[in-house]
Each structure stands twice: as C-alpha cells, then as structure tokens.
Amino acid sequence: MKTFKPRGKWILINPDEAQETYGKSFIAADNPNKKPETGETIAIGRSDSGYKVGEKLFFQRNGSVQIEVDGESRVLVHENQILGSYE
C-alpha cells in the first residue's frame, strides 16, 4: 500500500465521479470540462491550511495534477484552486 503525503499548500482529493445535486440550486456534472468539480480530501500538506481530511470541497481542475494512489485516480490540488466546501 502506497502512502502519499502532499507537501506545502497541496491537497490530495478523491474526485467525485457521478453527478450530484447540492441543495436545490447547484448540480455538479460528471463532465470534466465543467467547473467546479467536487471531491473529498484524503491528505493535506500543511496542517494550518484550514482544511481537514474528509472535508468535501468544490475545486477547479485546471492546474491540478492527476495521480494514481493504490490503483485509484486522485487529484492533487493547490489550496488556491479550492472554491469552497459543502456538506
């Protein structure tokens, strides 16, 4: 089993695949060209970043890095690409 620990201001995210509805007004599409994307944090580089493991985030895909960890596709996102969180 590989363990990946981001450094600095990078956050490792498990991106959502399927379309989901949040509240009554926002739909996140499964098309990767549409923004923003959603996912759950897996690991965080800086402990003082304000984010936590397991938090669900909206993020911009452009500028991110797609990697494979334990055979699963993950996205490495810089803090400034995080748009917000949701429950």
Indicate the overall shape: globular
Number of helices: 0
CATH architecture grouping: Roll
Spans where pLDDT lies below 50 across 5 or more residues: none
- Computed structural class: mainly beta
Assembly type of the shown chains?
single chain
Compute the CA-based radius of gyration.
13 Å
Helix proportion range = under 10%
Strand content: over 45%
Task: Tell me the name of the CATH homologous superfamily.
Answer: GroES chaperonin
Largest sheet: 6 strands, antiparallel
How are the strands of the largest sheet arranged?
A: 6-7-1-4-5-8
N- and C-termini, Cα separation:
29 Å
Give the SSE layout.
Layout: E1 10-15, E2 20-22, E3 26-28, E4 37-44, E5 56-59, E6 65-69, E7 72-78, E8 82-86
Protein architecture, described:
With 87 residues, this protein is mostly beta strands. It has one domain (10-18, 34-86): GroES chaperonin (10 Kd Chaperonin, Protein Cpn10, Chain O), CATH 2.30.33.40. It has no helices and eight strands. It has strands at 10-15, 20-22, 26-28, 37-44, 56-59, 65-69, 72-78, 82-86. The strands form two sheets. A six-stranded antiparallel β-sheet has the order 6-7-1-4-5-8, with no helix packed on it. Strand 6 (65-69) and strand 7 form a beta hairpin. 18% of the residues are buried. The model has no long low-confidence stretch (mean pLDDT 82).
